[in-house]
Amino acid sequence: MRRSNLGRRTRNATNQANYRSNRTAQERDDGNERERIRISQTREARARHSTNNRESLNRAAFSYDVSIDYSNYQCVVIGSMNSVCSHCKALKYKNEANGLCCANGKVKLIPLDPPPEPLYSLVSGIGTDSIHFLTHIQQYNNCFQMTSFGARNVVRENFMPTFKIQGQIYHRAGSLLPVSDSDNKFLQIYFMGNSPQEIDLRCAHNNLVKRSIVEQLQTLFHQHNQLIILFKTALDLIPSDNHKIVIRADKTPAGVDLQHTRRFNAPNIDEVAIVVVGENLESRDIVLHRRNDQLQRIKETHRSYDALQYPIIFWQGEDGYDFSIKMINPITGSETYKKVSSMNYYSYRLMIRENEDNHILKCRRLYHKYVVDICMLKLKRRD
Fold first, then answer.
1. Among 323, 171, 311, residue whose Cα is nearest residue 249
2. What is the pLDDT of residues 57-92, one digit of tens each?
3. Cα 249 versus chain centre, distance
4. Which of 38, 265, 279, 353 has a CB 3.0–4.6 Å from the CB of 275, allowing a cystine?
């Protein structure tokens, strides 16, 4: 740029500044109105010329413009969810892949049972208690989760209530009983033996929850969550702190009943081993000591991984994904030698189906957290 041009641009800027400072209030208002009209006309013209242009919507979600009617863009109109899978009755959008829901009939999972009261009403969205519960559902889940949530690197900035996660995420579990002079945490709270103290401790770390709802949920989990019942039974059978409880990573079906192999119940006491410390075990097994100060990382391919972290979603402690789940022949219904992948499993589990009440989808923010957890684990396995 020539030096003479620099001087001319400086004079122009100075003249513009002097003109703006000498305007009356009426002149400023008129100028602002003309500018608003010009911007509005420009946006309308841009929208008309790029209605069917996919490139014009590149990263549009990060610069959302309320003045643009995005429904006019044919490339983003996905239609109604009126396509029904002939195999599993999943509802899908027109352009979704045929095998997305059940691998064209090769995947078939037993539906999760709807929860009993009061949890059924709490996720309904009807009534003040339900609205409160769904607003704070993550805090209620935190009250009862049996494993802690961790990540390789958690970034907190500018005193914001949210945080960023970098790298891998993981769940960890401690011993069934705390060491001396330590407070009960996570799974240990279930074995305090004093219901009011148990409620007090759960509410102490989650001040947004209602004590009455926590009390009702605590009763529900003690009565219906098979993992908690199993841990209580196993704890009574452990002879000393030198022994530990082992829950196998994969389901071991009894007999040859194919329906049983696809049934997703929680582990029972017959599937739990009580062994002496030092005995060699599978790397994916959950090993819980009676009492020590060590944390064990729970493998994401263990069948109880989801139920330990999300008790409100998996209120019975149901089995989740594991390597032993087999695909079936869509014609005969018999098992094949091929195994169901984690993508197949979660795609099937998260679908909306005709005449099926999917409890997972009602859990709102907790459901969102669960999906993010799944996606992060799939990215980790892909890496």
1. 323
2. 777 777 777 777 777 777 777 788 889 999 999 999
3. 21
4. 279
Q: What is the torsion angle, in degrees rounded to the nearest 10, for the CA atoms of residue 94, residue 95, residue 101 and residue 106?
A: 110
Q: What is the pLDDT of residue 69?
A: 79
- Which of 110, 141, 175, 183 is CA-nearest to residue 313? 141
Own/partner pairs for 55-58, CB < 8 Å, 24+ apart?
A: none
Torsion of CA 82, 86, 87, 93, to 10 degrees: -20
- For residue range 282-302, list pLDDT tens digits in order: 677 877 777 887 777 888 888
CA atoms within 13 A on the CB side of 362: 21
Residues contacting residue 267 through CB under 8 Å, at least 6 positions apart: 226, 227, 230, 247, 248, 303, 304, 319
Residue 200 lies in a domain: yes
Tell me if 93 is assigned to some domain. Answer: no
State the pTM of this model. Answer: 0.73
Is residue 60 in some structural domain? no
Distance CA 116, CA 133 (A): 16
Q: Which range of residues forms the domain containing residue 262? A: 131-324
**How many structural domains comprise the chain?**
1
User: In which order are the strands placed within the sheet that holds 164-173?
Assistant: 148-155, 164-173, 296-298
C-alpha radius of gyration, the chain, whole number: 28
